[in-house]
Design a protein that fits this description.
6 helices, single chain, 448 residues, alpha+beta, six-stranded antiparallel β-sheet, 23 strands, eleven-stranded antiparallel β-sheet, globular
Amino acid sequence: ALAKHFTAMRGRKDLRPTWGAAYQDHAPLQEQKEALGHAVRASYFYAGAADVAALAGDASCAAAVDRLWENVVEKKLHLNGGIGARKRVTYRDKALGSSYEAFGDAYDLPNQDAYLETCAAIGNALWNERMFLLHGDAKYVDVLERTLYNGLISGVSLGGDEFFYPNPMASKGGYARSKWFDCSCCPVNVARFIPQIPSLAYATRAGADEAYVNLFMASDATLTLKSGKIRISQKTDYPWSGEVLLDIDPGEDGKRFALNVRVPGWCAGRPVPGGLYVQTAPPASGFKAKVDGKEFAFTPVKGYCRIEREWKRGDRVEISMPLETRRIKAHDAVTEDRGRLAVERGPVLYCAEGADNGGSVLDKAIAPDAPFALGECEIAGNRYPALSAPAVQAVRGADGKVSRVPCTMKLVPYFAWCHRGAGEMQTWFPVEPADSIAKPPPRAGGKR
């Protein structure tokens, strides 16, 4: 009741002066049509409103958070799952005021200048988890997963002792993680959030015999259904492998319940819900399931492979998802990504760093049909799958003319960038180099 009251008090201009969009006070929630203002405050407010919608049965709150979620996912979400594109925004409508760490206009999705605070990624993850709990649809977990594997864990070093505040999509060099910040919200928020991740992997439907497998991670879980407890043991090397084994213990043979296993959007041709990002060559076939060694035919229900049956101890569900390299295209209204494509493998976004590519990546292009080879990289003592592809570099000669020089680009997981020096980084690759990105020839002494 208190949460419902707080939600209803936002934007009440008839009661007091407004604090503007920065404080989510520019309009009552039910009147909002667009995500505005400080992205962290917004995502936490939306998460709370989703809880009010679910627990208080408030249909007006549900309609509002649905509308705002669609606005973010279709117009204001970066490919790494980050939100809050701008360090500071002054809105054209003076009544909205200005805001820092904020949502910008629709399709305003910069790369080098992207802000994308780590705390906003955490807020986005928590909001999407609440949206799943409200609606039981896998599309919300798709956004949650994208945020987890990319724009959220990029905010902490692999050693756990250095942090990004913003998480840009490209860098000219010179940007690095810090040990601490005067405003220390991101490090402590990471430390608070990461222990919550196991609780996001599974779910049950209240008062029903339905279990959900949302995230793929080696784990053992005990879930309480209407008919009693069940156990699920999951074995997988996801996201580096698309193979998942689920061993089911129903507690007693013959117990009937539905097991809903998420079919990730990325293996069904949809990197995100809506049309903001699309795969240039969606897979002909993706997610496959076997139950006790037999192929299981299914039609997805709200993005899930639903297996309803009488279970017995020792039953096994085998999931197979092809981890093919996919090129991603942004909506044409995203001006900074026109003529560019990104690269993903499964749910993991890839980037190129100067450390692997002769010091520069911003002057290189990868053709739309370039073949990618799978290899390996070592970063901070960890080994990860790496990708390589033929590319072209724009080189400006001493006479000022630009030539195209064949080269090879090596790509590594985006979340692991900036562990080998604060060099250049790129996620959206031009499909052909422009003269404007060509660098001058080396000066005497070998330095540019």
